[in-house]
Amino acid sequence: MRQRSLISITAALAAGALTLTACGSRDDDGGSDSAGGTKVVIGVDAPLTGDLSALGLGIKNSVDLAAKTANKQKLVDGVTFEIKALDDQAQPSSGQANASTLVADKSVLGVVGPLNSSVAESMQKVFDDAKLVEVSPANTGPALTQGVNWQKEKVRTYKSYFRTSTTDAIQGPFAAQYVYNDAKKTKVFVIDDKKTYGAGLAATFTAEFKKLGGKVVGTDHIDPETKDFSAVATKVKSSGADVVYYGGEYPQAGPLSKQIKASGAKIPLVGGDGIFDPQFVELAGAGSAGDLATSVGAPVEELDSAKQFVADYKAAGYKDDYAAYGGYSYDAAWSIILAVKKVVEDNDGKLPSDARAKITAAVQNVSFDGVTGKVAFDEYGDATNKQLTVYAVENGAWKAVKSGTYTG
Predict the structure, then answer these.
(1) I need a labelling partner for 355 at 20 to 30 A (CA). Which of 16, 40, 188, 231 fits?
(2) SS3 assignment for the chain
(3) pLDDT for residue 16 is more than 60
């Protein structure tokens, strides 16, 4: 799940950053022809307003940067890339409506997003029916790629869905191993927000924690629409837990952590990538020191492969941070861009009439050195890069404390 805003398309046009025209013939399935060549639109779906906009705007900006970089490099001869960003407000119904809007625009040949796994569930069939490729930089729910019964039998339901982030099937157990083996915590109180992401992550953490020998001393759910968690905080205090695991996102995790400490339970709150954001620290306050979060991949700032992305993002002047999903969003967009390049080159320099289907097939086979490392997809559409990092709040900011992969 993550970050912020950008120069509008109108401003970019005024500055001459994009070579587009207002008119031109449109193919049956792919691009829009104009005097300046062929326009290819990459859709973006993310929460651009509301509590999670600090994540969604970073996704949007990073995709925009990828499109501008491809244009500057003239990566695909005769093709100019543009983005079309829609706000899903982290709501499945809005995501599904946005998916239909993007499908209806025949110049849209790929989509990056969404942030939330629950939103993705509402979008997948819409895109798959249209053979329109979707690459999420942030979804971690295992069922999205491996089917609802993924723990027993993996079945890929939607061939058009991919992701550059790893899944909760790995993230939850990775966190459990750190909490039990490294942090030496043995009694956990598990809380989730009952949403697809949060409940799924809490479940995979719990299973691994028990397998390691840890004890679950209590469980509860919270209503993500409220900020009063005093009742569950009291339960945590009386349970004797030495750690809390929360499956959910930072707008609730921050106040939850603060209220648990206020109840007298001076124990760390641990969560997944959904809480890994500076705003968690702001919401949780000074008592958040020692709280933990896992997030996909390694810290972008520490990767040699990300140095150019970080420099280019800063130079572009975006007022919002790229945050945890910026690199994954750029790589998601680049996988679509490279697929477009492959399809155009295989069709004598033009987009074919069935461009969407061919681009979806091409994404399955992309392999490149991206911002976040090697980018490729397995037979389920999952990222082959399965690295994760544990972060701790130290001196009012997240600090990486351990990177690695889950060993099950």
Answers:
(1) 16
(2) CCCCCCCCHHHHHHCCCCCCCCCCCECCCCCEEECCEEEEEEEEEECCCCCCHHHHHHHHHHHHHHHHHHHHHCCCCCEEEEEEEEECCCCHHHHHHHHHHHHHCCCEEEEECCCCHHHHHHHHHHHHHCCCCEEECCCCCCHHHHCCCCCCCCCCCCCCEEECCCCHHHHHHHHHHHHHHHCCCCEEEEEECCCHHHHHHHHHHHHHHHHHCCEEEEEEECCCCCCCCHHHHHHHHHHCCCEEEEECCHHHHHHHHHHHHHCCCCCCEEECHHHCCHHHHHHHCHHHCCCEEEEECCCHHHCHHHHHHHHHHHHHCCCCCCHHHHHHHHHHHHHHHHHHHHHHHHCCCCCCCCHHHHHHHHHHCCEEEECCEEEEECCCCCECCCCEEEEEEECCEEEEEEEECCCC
(3) no
